[in-house]
Amino acid sequence: MMEKRKTEYENLLWDLDGTLTDPAVGITTAAQMALRRCGIEVDNRRGLYKFIGPPLMDSFRDFYGFTDAEAARACGYFREYYNVTGLFENVMYEGMDLLLDRLAAAGYKLYVATSKPEPIARRVLEHFDLARRFLFIGADTTDHRRPTKAAVIEYVLERCGIAAMRERTVMIGDRKHDVIGARAAGIDSIGVLYGYGSEEEMRECGATTTVRDVPSLCRLLLADE
């Protein structure tokens, strides 16, 4: 079947956690262990889903009132587990690999824009055989020189030579940080509701549109024959 685009977009920027893959077990376990090392016990890991999506330093500061130094120490504890074990406690959303192949066949250009450090993002994507499906993997640096999603998006736009194509570029993600970052960069956003953000969250932060599941995302972007 000949794939056809259904939108005027050409460049699709993708969040990783909660959009391409479901990282709940690894991230919440790592957060639970890090908080325990800091003297905070969280028995129900569902309460730590809020760690999925935002930059890690922000999560410890915003959710637990940590100072910068305390947050940096907690991030170190987090990574002791996550960088070895947690990153593989992850599941690709069903049908995502096929969707990416269909989008590429239709002429869309695919990029990753994630707040994960680049080496970790690449390991996750390679683990699921997704890395080869993207033209570029944009992420934070290991020393956190791109600490916001807006900074990551700008990095991808500039590095890939598509900064002049903002009206034909869209950010796909599941949390407000993706939408806010897209707005700061002057591009549209698609909020996916199968991840860890709610419809209310997407509406309040101004997502251009939302989709409920992977098939809905497919229907939004591809025209059926």
In short:
The protein has 225 residues and is α/β, with parallel strands linked by helices.
Describe the structure in your own words.
Helices cover 42% and strands 17% of the residues. The chain is of the alpha/beta class and 225 residues long. It has two domains: 152 residues, Rossmann fold (3-Layer(aba) Sandwich), CATH 3.40.50.1000; 65 residues, DNA polymerase, domain 1 (Orthogonal Bundle), CATH 1.10.150.240. The strands form three sheets. A six-stranded parallel sheet has the order 6-5-2-7-8-9, sandwiched between helices. A two-stranded antiparallel ribbon has the order 1-10. Helix 6 packs across helix 7. The protein is globular.
In angstroms, what is the radius of gyration? 17 Å
Overall pLDDT metric: 96
| Total strands | 10
CATH-defined topology of the largest domain: Rossmann fold
Uncertain runs with pLDDT below 50, 5 residues or more? Answer: none
Features:
225 residues, Rossmann fold, alpha/beta, 9 helices, 17% strand, 42% helix, 6-stranded parallel sheet, DNA polymerase, domain 1, 2 domains, single chain, two-stranded antiparallel sheet
Write the layout of secondary structure elements.
Blueprint: E1 4-5, E2 11-14, E3 21-22, H1 24-37, H2 56-64, H3 68-82, E4 91-92, H4 96-105, E5 109-117, H5 118-127, E6 136-140, H6 149-159, E7 169-173, H7 176-185, E8 188-192, H8 199-205, E9 209-211, H9 214-221, E10 222-223
